[in-house]
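ok trying this again, last paste got cut off
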Amino acid sequence: MGEIEFRNVTKRFRGGAEGLRGVSLVIPAGSMAFITGHSGAGKSTFLKLLLRMEAPTRGQILVDGYDIGAIPRRRLPAYRRGLGAVFQDHHLLNNRSVFENVALPLRVQGMTNRDIGRRVRAALTGVELLDKAMLSPDALSTGEQQRLGIARAVVNRPRLLLADEPTGNLDPVLSRGIMGYFRQFNAVGTTVLIASHETALIAEMGIRTIELANGAVVADSDPGTAREEQRRG
């Protein structure tokens, strides 16, 4: 699960500015892709539409075949539980431990303490932070805080993981490490979509890259494969 399809999607903001213009593409389930482009190209708008933080002005956005624009407000929390999101600003809670920061989404769902403990330990192990579970997030380095944000995003075992400039504050070595974690989650079947302007790092990854400029797709390194995989599915 986790297929994304944009069908002629336009997002126009108040005042007439367009965040996206006529975007049509398919990102197959279980794949990994970058959304790139200059500042203001539409990368964050693309992710906000998928999170249903914004709604398209025109067109359809389908996730696993469902038009997410048609989801009623009362059902948005259930939809978002199937997503994981990582941001440049981690939004960590320094009055809670590393463990509790990761556990919070599970506690909101009413999961048992036993299941919470199992899932949180697995998520922290995946990003090599289990030994720091009882620390406060402000005791972690910048790279560790980003890894903590990733652990919190994947603790729900989402079918779709979205990341907005996840390496923006990191040096090249730490950035490569963070991208390695995204590869690991993609390897177990999670669809991973990363918005980034770091073209050199993206080029090293050898992953499908969709370039936006002024809200429109101007380049796509692998659109044919995406359409072929869609037909086979």
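PB: full thing came through this time. The longest strand covers residues 18-27.
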